[in-house]
Amino acid sequence: MANIAIIGSEKSGRTSLAGKLGKKGTESDITLYNFVKGDRIYAFVEANGYPDSLKSLINAINLSDIALVCVPSSGLNAQVGECIIALDLLANKKGMFVITMSDKSNPTAISELTEKIKAITKGTNLEKWESIAVSTTTFEGLENLKEKIFSLGEEAMAANASKNDLPQRIMVDHFFNVTGIGCVVLGVVEQGTIREHDKLTLFPTNRPAEIRSIQSNDVDMKSAPAGTRVGLALKGVQSKEFDRGYMISQKEEISSKFNLKCKLTKFTQGLGVGDTVHLFAGLQSMPGTIVSMAIGGKDATQAQPGSDCTVVLTTQKDIAFSKNDRFLIAQLNNPKQRLVAGCEVV
Known about the structure:
This protein is an alpha+beta fold. The chain has helices at 14-21, 54-62, 78-90, 107-121, 142-161, and strands at residues 2-8, 23-27, 31-37, 40-46, 66-72, 94-100, 130-133, 169-178, 182-191, 194-195, 199-203, 207-216, 219-221, 223-224, 229-235, 247-249, 253-264, 271-272, 276-281, 284-295, 298-300, 302-303, 308-321, 326-330, 339-345. It folds into three domains: 2-161, P-loop containing nucleotide triphosphate hydrolases (Rossmann fold, 3-Layer(aba) Sandwich); 169-249, Translation factors (Elongation Factor Tu (Ef-tu), domain 3, Beta Barrel); 254-345, Beta Barrel (Elongation Factor Tu (Ef-tu), domain 3).
């Protein structure tokens, strides 16, 4: 199984594309679409709350192995730029640019747009991504796109299979009560293989939780390997104890104080001691404050766009994380450029 984010601006054609690629399922600020055909099983995650909600964009990306960035054939816009920055800061994602509504353009204009995409992604983690033009009206390019997705999906599934023997870790994105069943959560098995009756822990609340049953695409399963999108019936916890991004695993780091090595995007206005920011860790997000900063091992008060720095950041509440997780710092009150830096724990 592979998980695919479908992102782009509000009028980028992302919703129409998602509807052609899968069957619509759970909907909130992210909408899930499922595709099942033989051994090919894909979960598409549309960031339908974006651009109003940066969280919707980050959540869709962090739930995925692959990203499809929808670019309308009319041209690039600020939201495409923000999607590119987010993917670059999070690093190591596979994906493609999908030039949508190709029936409203012409081959020359689409070729020029493809070259513009190459130019703005040069030097980023996305510079080798392919662009493909499609129309959900005439269906031009859709079958070609699907084949490209299947090819990337094979790579993603192989990468996920290499994580099957690691300690179990499930990232939760939806949670609710079901009459006669109790607490049910939806999420993705980030690593490890989960099984019925596994006794794990809910983080950051440190609550014991037992897996009563497992489903994927409405099919009951005794176990689920890494990369599988699952619905879990849980024993020992209630849905009201959850928040999006909570982790179910054997062990997590828990903290409200972080020492982070950061790479600032060159498009930000910078980062300074005392700044109020928003920290994204997986699907968790929390307001925070920059307490101190160092550049090149020396104390500093301000980091410039495009620079590297180390910061100590405190959040209002605890966050559950692994030391291998990738963090994002954002300034949500900045209308021009909300994303500030990609970070890792020192």
